[in-house]
Amino acid sequence: MPPVDTESGAPPRFLIVVAAAIALGLAVVVAIVGLTSPPEENAAAAAGPLPLVPVPAPQAASAPCATLLGAVPAALRSAGTELTRRELAAPAPPASAGWGEDDPVVLRCGLDRPPELTPTAQLRVINGVRWLQVPGAGTATWFVVDREVYAALTVPDTAGTGPLQQISDAIAAGLPPAPLRFG
């Protein structure tokens, strides 16, 4: 047992200084390791493949879907954050892509006509593409309704407009407009 100061019962000052120096040294080592370790190159990749539930997509193997999936960006901007494209978990639904980690943005192509698309449905035009918004719990799914194939972009409510604008740009650049079909 180390000697103690008989008046206060505390360990000698020398032992307190040594213990403080050791603690400070460990804190410096942890800080240096944290600062010099390479940053996570891709947080989405670290999360592993993105599992997607299959949905009916009878035209997923079509040429327009292949064109669209080939034209989408590797990263999307969402509310000031860059969302990188994720690998999809096997078995991956055809003509699908996902970006981001916790609340991913998901694109699916070749879907059936959304039942919400009626002659009186309110559509929005974003960067030359007509979209039908279908709200959900914590997300919204936007259907492209003026191209040869239907595609859907599901975005979390926390996302900004960036993903919708960037996907609109890819659609406008690669898929010509088509008349609306109501049934």
From TrEMBL:
The lineage is: Bacteria, Bacillati, Actinomycetota, Actinomycetes, Pseudonocardiales
Q: What is this protein called?
A: DUF3515 domain-containing protein
TM region(s), chain numbering: 14-35
Record-linked InterPro entries: DUF3515 (IPR021903)
Pfam families cross-referenced by the UniProt entry? DUF3515 (PF12028)
Keyword field: Membrane, Transmembrane, Transmembrane helix
